[in-house]
Task: structure prediction
Amino acid sequence: MKKVLTLALSASFLIAGSLVQEAKDAGLVPIPSSKAELLKLIDNPKNHITDEKVNLGKKLYFDPRLSKSGFISCNSCHNLGEGGDDGLEAAVGHKWTVNPHHLNSPTVYNSVFNDKQFWDGRSPHLEDQAQGPIQAGPEMAATKEHVTDTINSIPAYVNEFKNAYGKSVDITFEKITDTIGLFERTLVTPSAFDDFMNGDKKALTKKQQDGLQTFIQVGCATCHNGVGIGGGMNAFNVTETYKHMNVGDFKGDANGMVRVPTLRNVTQTAPYFHNGKVATLKEAIIEMGRIQLGTKIDDKQAKSIETFLQALDGRKAAIDFPILPASTDKTPKPDLN
Amino acid sequence: MKKVLTLALSASFLIAGSLVQEAKDAGLVPIPSSKAELLKLIDNPKNHITDEKVNLGKKLYFDPRLSKSGFISCNSCHNLGEGGDDGLEAAVGHKWTVNPHHLNSPTVYNSVFNDKQFWDGRSPHLEDQAQGPIQAGPEMAATKEHVTDTINSIPAYVNEFKNAYGKSVDITFEKITDTIGLFERTLVTPSAFDDFMNGDKKALTKKQQDGLQTFIQVGCATCHNGVGIGGGMNAFNVTETYKHMNVGDFKGDANGMVRVPTLRNVTQTAPYFHNGKVATLKEAIIEMGRIQLGTKIDDKQAKSIETFLQALDGRKAAIDFPILPASTDKTPKPDLN
Result:
């Protein structure tokens, strides 16, 4: 009996081992388990990660005073308590304006692994991305001056910038958004999938392993690959046209390429697709097969893939909700108009 | 020299000692330093505070899915990272609606010490208060059904209610708002003023002690008293009419009585007055003297009072930003309209 068990276990390990290889061959890359390796992967070589900068970036991320209204922070649409997004079809912002292209807020979690930022990939990295929504009329609607005047009017913020960057720091708009971007780089959520890929063969259940195999066999990893399990740019409507293409006028970048969403924490980021018109993960999986792979994914396969995707739900680092330094008489007044 | 110093110190202690008595005589009450005494003061006898209930209440407090839009949580207007409010003149809510009476969001910190809730005192306690903004059209705009359907559609929430209240718990709207109210009861911020009143004579600087004396002598403690340093109901426009009375149509309760705001953390809760039309604390102090006490508070007195009020900036408990359980296919969809 004991021998049989041992044999069975070895066989299971062998299968798991070959599945890891298969996943690697398909381009799937785990988040490194080594902290040093992970840091290398997420760090900004021009502005290295330090505790001081990240803690300051967290405050700025949660501070609604960076918006014109004083009511909307980065976290309003990229809520770290939800899936790193807002759960809405299309983002809403200043004066309750719905995103004019009906674009869905992407998750900020693991966005450091995206090759490019925004649905049309127009931004090369998070530091650049962070400048966008703060200034966009339908989002936070602030001017650069509003942001720099706000931060520079609050002595506690000025001190934190000095602690983070040295006493001669010039607190420019770019310095502020760089700091937010740096905080966002740290929002990485290792999952059971990563543990499995990094050698813990028991980290995935048999059904999740089967799901991973289906995911690869059906062809999902053609686009959803890399550490982000997504994050590159790819053509859209490859074999058929997306059934809700009429909602919003989004067509991708100049070449029609669209940023592939990360599938990490995808069970928490409904609704799906660039315009948020697909409510459930099952429907999203089937529609993806139809329009991108020319494959009719049946219910059983969809369920199997969904089971694997659950293994991409990651472990979020604990976040101390930041107590923000108080405004002063010099702080620009919020303006709801 | 040593003897002179000792004498001087004794004199200072004596003065401080008599100031504590003077403050007590004026009706000022510290937050108890004993945890057991504090718990007695803030607990709900009909629904005792437990860690399970408070942690659950914190999640609900931060959960925007309790609003019709899915975009607004209790924390949106009563931001625990700011002064427990939103820094706006008048609250803004669903569809960017400004409070129709141009009423300013009061701080949630130390609101447990208010005799009554809301500016017109129409609510007897936090559990009752919590039912209001969730359902108010210009705030979170949700129906009771939206709230109960949302929570009951999320198994992790259902489990947390069972852990908090027992397996047979009925997760009604009232049970949900009671749990939010219970969390809010714990948002108490002891300050240097409390340390001073509780026996630490060095907790207040000489200037802060002078400010406390001015505060009492001018008559501020006539209304701003009790543990909340405010929180009771009082007549408004007693000696003169508030200079911005024309903004909004707020007239207090049926008898013209208005809820006195807490002065705890008041340096963080600008702008001031029920309609938020006074930008600075100094102006607020002088206007209060004019309209409530018939006293011309000069610049020096105002500065002295402000120095004391800074000693009411409290110590906020650390808050782990709650990771909210994910929605399911059964969770009601957000509706921005």
Notes: Residues 38-185 of chain B form a domain with the Cytochrome Bc1 Complex; Chain D, domain 2 fold (CATH 1.10.760.10). Chain B has a mean pLDDT of 95. Strands of chain B lie at 92-93, 97-98, 233-235, 257-259. Residues 33 and 201 of chain B are 14 Å apart (CA to CA).
